[in-house]
Amino acid sequence: MPSPSEAPPPPPNGGYGWVCTLCVALINANTWGLNSSYGVFLAHYLSNDTFPGATYLEYAFVGGLSISCAMLVSPLATLSIRYYGSHVTLSIGIVLETASLIAASFADERQIWQLFLSQGVCFGFGMGLLFVASVGIPPQWFTTKRSLANGISSAGSGFGGLIYSLAAGAMIRSIGLAWCFRVLAILCFTVNTACTILIRDRNKIIGSRHLLDLKLFKRPEFLLFNGYGFFSMLGYIVLIFSLADYANRIGLTASQASVISAILNLGQGLGRPPIGYFSDSIGRITMAGLTTSLCALFAFVIWIFAKSYGVLILYALVGGTVAGTFWATAAPVAVEVVGLRDLPAALNLEWLVIVLPCTFSQPIALQIASSTGGYLGTQLFVAVMYMAAALCVLLLRRWKVDQLNEIARSENDHPNGISMAGSEMGANGDIARPTARRTQWKEFWKWRKI
User: What mean pLDDT, rounded, does the chain reach?
Assistant: First the structure.
């Protein structure tokens, strides 16, 4: 492990990193992708009164609970990675996720709290352990292709959501709810286990600091990164959970509403790799700001006016390509902000920051819709939240420009000659941070690859 005063060796920028990227994509497909199919289960629960007496909000709480628990478990996942390694943490996550699906298959129809504990809490804990242990691995293997690799790995959740949404519906109709859960458990256990065997991290090589380093909150640039995630999740969670309900509100059938959800997942799967590819071309922070701005724009100019099946499909596909921008850019942007060594600590703090929006964004949306009698307020809420997230990224980009300028001045070099890898791993990046914070207002409009 390199000493704190030494820069770690540069990543190989490929090689076995592509295998790890594929493994993380498959893990995302079998965690976040499977969780995205909850809308299919929700439709089944409601149409068949599976748990008599349960309300829509109680069912919705199951879906939100899985996401919030996945984020809440990040400190334990961090400690597990630090003391036992990534493979042990991934293995625990596999056991919990598999157990949750098996338990859900035996849930008593008179006791919905059993669904809360199985499909909600237990599944969320398993998903969180798998996610936290794997999300930071692709960036460790790449430099110039880092965002592309992260985009490919995060695309797994979109394609997984598409596949599992269609597969779960078919299995529920053909073999029943209980056996659907059991088949999903077998599939997830098999795929995630294979990926865990193949995946490799570089934590020891780069000297990763798997701690909840609260000192990061003293950095204004890290607070801007937190704001990016916080506001993005307020918009994103509402969008993925509300679009099918909006389809029903405008008179579409349940089948058409499920297709809208599937198209949204397809859009996410198709959109995230290009986001990563162009991030490496024009800059990771720049790309995050542009695509997050598009999220707001599409909500304003397409979703608000989508009153027919065809227009809503267009919005689901086009909006879906950029809706999950945060998940495609979180790790690469975090590297630009805190460096590779502090990446695990920064991401785990970020997961805790977004617990609140993940938990309460959908109830907020439902309250807005019910109090106004329509979806316009909810649509405006989503658009404004994405605008706030984009503003945080633009301010963060300005800070990064000044940081690189300070490094260039300290090394008597031209700013464009400073490599991104050097700013991420070298000691000069830490030296330049305070000055960059003081001068960040000077170069808001300056263009360069950031």
Answer: 83
389 token code pair:
């997230």
Percent of the chain's residues with pLDDT above 70:
87
Please report, as a single letter, which amino acid is at residue 195.
Answer: C
Give 393's contacts (C-beta < 8 A, 6+ positions apart): 224, 228, 285, 288, 289, 292, 333
Chain length of the chain: 450
Residues whose CB falls within 8 Å of the CB of residue 30, separated by 6 or more in sequence, listed in order: 97, 160, 187, 188, 191, 192
- Within 8 A by CB and 6+ apart from 339, the residues are 424, 425, 429, 430
Coil, strand or helix: which one is 66? Answer: helix
pLDDT in tens, 303-353: 999 999 999 999 999 999 999 889 888 888 998 898 877 887 888 889 899
Burial class (CB in 10 A: 0-12, 13-18, 19+), 127: buried
The pTM of this model reads 0.81
What distance in Å separates the CA atoms of residue 398 and residue 393, rounded to the nearest whole number?
Answer: 9
Q: In whole angstroms, what is the distance from residue 285 CA to residue 263 CA?
A: 27
Tell me the per-residue pLDDT of 172-203, one tens digit each, with 9 for 90 and over.
Answer: 889 998 999 999 999 999 999 999 999 998 77
Task: Give the 3-state secondary structure of residue 297.
Answer: helix
Encode 45-71: b = buried (16+ Cβ within 10 Å), e = exposed: beeeebbeebeeeebbbbbbbbbbbbb
Q: Could you tell me if 400 and 336 are in contact, meaning their C-beta atoms sit under 8 angstroms apart?
A: yes
Q: Tell me which residue of 41, 80, 88 sits closest to 63, measured CA to CA.
A: 41
| Nearest by Cα to 369 from 318, 361, 302 | 361
Q: Which pLDDT value is given to residue 426? A: 44
Residue 135 · residue 9 · CB < 8 Å: no
Residues of the chain with pLDDT under 70: 1-9, 205-211, 254, 411-448
pLDDT score for 413? 59
Alpha carbon dihedral 410, 416, 422, 428, in 10-degree steps, equals 20
- Give the distance from CA 275 to its chain's centroid: 14
Q: Which residue stretches of 136-253 are H helix?
A: 137-140, 146-175, 177-198, 203-206, 220-249
Strands (E), 40-155: none
Nearest Cα residue to 347 out of 27, 33, 74: 74
Please answer whether residues 287 and 72 qualify as being in contact, where contact means their C-beta atoms are separated by less than 8 angstroms: no
Q: Tokens 């098999």 identify what position?
A: 190
For 171, other C-beta atoms within 10 Å of its C-beta total: 19
CB atoms within 10 A of CB 430: 11
